[in-house]
Amino acid sequence: xxxxxxxxKEFIPHVENLSDGSIRxxxxxxxxxxxxxxxxxxxxxxxxxxxxxxxxxxxxxxxxLSISGIDSxxxxxxxxxxxxxxxxxxxxxxxxxxxxKISEGIPRPWRLIYYRARKMFDPNNYKGRYSKEEKEQLxxxxxxxxxxxxxxxxxxxxxxxxxxxxxxxxxxxxxxGPWTKEEIQKxxxxxxxxxxxxxxxxxxSSPSSLEQPDRDLWVDREKLYQQLPWTEIETKVGSRYWRxxxxxxxxxxxxxxxKGQQLHRWSKSLQNKITLIKRLYEMKVEDANEVxxxxxxxxxxxxxxxxxxxxxxxxxVSFVPFWQKKTFPEIINFLFQxxxxxxxxxx
Length: 347
Description:
Layout lengths: L1 H8 L10 H20 L11 H18 L4 H5 L8 H10 L2 H5 L7 H12 L10 H14 L3 H8 L3 H11 L10 H23 L13 H6 L7 H8 L4 H16 L8 H18 L9 H8 L4 H15 L8 H19 L1
Helix pairs in contact: 1-2, 3-7, 8-9, 8-10, 9-10, 11-13, 13-14, 14-17, 15-17, 15-18, 16-17
């Protein structure tokens, strides 16, 4: 495992954060591909998939269907929906090396390619608007099964995300205007409640521990935005979608963190900028729209995505001359070549 991690580190900078199981899978599915791409001078990519990559995935899936004789992409990528054919499909996938075929020509980790393919070929993702009958059905199923969206999605032939978001939309009246002071207070209170609950359950902390101003603030700050139960927070706020709650909460954090010393130590702020520039450079994306800010947030480890976007904007506006006339790769290359050494020296 140590050798594998060391080999993968050249291609996956955040490899030390991956589990042993993930490392084993990447050795089998990715390492040889990555080495071959390196010989060709092609860097491993992260971030959003380009149109060219989407077309390559379609081509790979269609070719595999032709080779294997499986009659639909849904059967290939959502085998569990066809229990009577499951054994045969899995045998054909193994026999014709499904893992290798679906990732052919795409310099990304296999897992990301597979998830992208599932999203592209899931017929339940593209069923249009919900009818009145479907909305009533959704309410009934949610009353019966709670928030078991996987179960409900099977009953309604819609994707998990689709039914969860639609229920969020129809269960209560939603305000689309500016946030009121009362709503912001409800949001803050709701977040505080769920974080308190998480601390008590996971860390064995007492309820009063959150009131201690200097208690392990670094860990507490991470818990301010990582893996919060937004549907629960939405319910507590009562007048906003979970996505509105998440966006508003992140904007509140950005304002707080942007004040510098108050919540963000100077040295850590420098380290975040260094990591941000390095990871953007490693992604090798051609356009800003391809950047996966969620992934960058995981790499930095203690800031929300909105904060990173603000930091990147400040870096390019403050330090890249004529940045408006430069392409995205030119901006990143400039920051990497000229600003990064200066930040590392300061740190």
